[in-house]
TrEMBL record:
Polar residues: bias regions: 1-18
Protein name: FliM/FliN family flagellar motor switch protein
Residues spanning the signal sequence: none
Flagellar motor switch protein FliN-like C-terminal domain sequence ranges: 228-296
InterPro entries xref list: FliN-like_C, SpoA-like_sf
UniProt keyword list: Cell projection, Cilium, Flagellum
Region called Disordered, residue ranges: 1-32
Length: 324
């Protein structure tokens, strides 16, 4: 049976058709993107970092920033938590991974899935720290990239995993004696599991931007500085020095050990020719390899005068000629 087309008559209601045409002809409104904040930076860093490696869904119910002093940090580490030392451009920081999140990260990497049974009550091992190192470095790397878009927001960035902390009571000794930012993330892995908890990050506050150098330096002093700084000098990073008897030295054999203290590992001397110490440094890691981070200079033997001499010549002196 055929269908007859109905012809619209004058006065017929065209409201529905007109509304549909208006919707089709009106371009969609652009939705405003959410403003990037330090809290949102950390949320995205956890979602991206743990989403890639070890590939687990992350939900953050809350992200808060507070203030903490180093002596208060040790009490934040509970039984079964993993404490990590972080190394960054502004000094050492720390991360405290609750046992629920720790169990989820380990299960995902070793079993390929999250378990639904209760989290076992056990002591943290060095293997646990090794399995968590890469995922946390992924989170910190993502945070560093996103934080670059927040210049002037006062958010610390550029940190990486340094070492596990066996005794939480020693953790405050590695932190600078100053207030630190305390980030708290109520974090859950997967859906419907007990792999959750509050992850804490203790990070030093970023150092203020250095003041602009004075523009009053003379042309002669600038050229002299450039000439001196073009010179090359050999540097040695000395981790440890010791003395022993000649007889003991001759008795050393393959497999013998020379013990170093924790203090020896924390201090590295940067020495120039002749064993002259010109700076101090800290032993750490950068880009996945061992490195040393230069600290405050201990000598001013290479410091050049910033103020020009009253009658400085316009050109460099000849070899052997002393400046006035």
């Amino acid at each position: 049976m055929g269908m007859r087309a109905q012809r619209s008559t004058p006065g017929q209601d065209m409201t529905s058709e007109s509304a549909l045409r208006r919707k089709l002809s009106t371009p969609p409104r652009a939705e405003a993107l959410p403003r990037l904040t330090p809290e949102r930076v950390w949320r995205r860093a956890f979602e991206f970092g743990l989403g890639r490696q070890p590939g687990v869904a992350v939900r953050i119910a809350a992200a808060e920033r507070g203030l903490v002093h180093p002596p208060e940090v040790a009490a934040m580490v509970e039984a079964g938590d993993l404490a990590l030392l972080l190394d960054g451009p502004d000094g050492y920081g720390a991360a405290i991974v609750p046992r629920g999140v720790l169990a989820g990260l380990i299960e995902r990497q070793t079993l390929g899935r999250l378990l639904s049974r209760p989290v076992p009550d056990r002591a943290v091992t060095a293997v646990d720290a090794a399995l968590v190192a890469d995922p946390f470095d992924g989170v910190l790397a993502a945070q560093e990239t996103l934080a670059a878009e927040l210049s002037g927001a006062g958010i610390a960035a550029g940190f990486r995993y340094a070492a596990p902390v066996a005794d939480p009571q020693t953790l405050p000794l590695s932190l600078a004696d100053a207030p630190h930012d305390l980030w708290r993330f109520d974090l859950a892995l997967g859906e419907g599991t007990a792999r959750s908890g509050v992850v804490r990050l203790i990070l030093p506050r970023p150092a203020p931007a250095p003041a602009a150098a004075s523009s009053a330096a003379s042309h002669w002093a600038g050229r002299l500085e450039a000439r001196v700084l073009d010179g090359r000098i050999a540097l040695d990073a000395v981790l440890y020095r010791t003395e022993m008897e000649v007889a003991r030295l001759r008795a050393l054999a393959v497999g013998d050990t020379i013990r170093l203290t924790r203090r020896d590992l924390d201090g590295v001397a940067i020495c120039a020719a002749g064993g002259v110490q010109v700076a101090t440094a800290r032993l750490g890691r950068a880009g996945g390899v061992k490195a040393v981070k230069i600290g405050a200079p201990v000598s001013e033997i290479f410091t050049l005068a910033s103020d020009p001499a009253p009658d400085a010549p316009a050109s460099l002196p000849d070899a052997g000629e002393a400046p006035p």
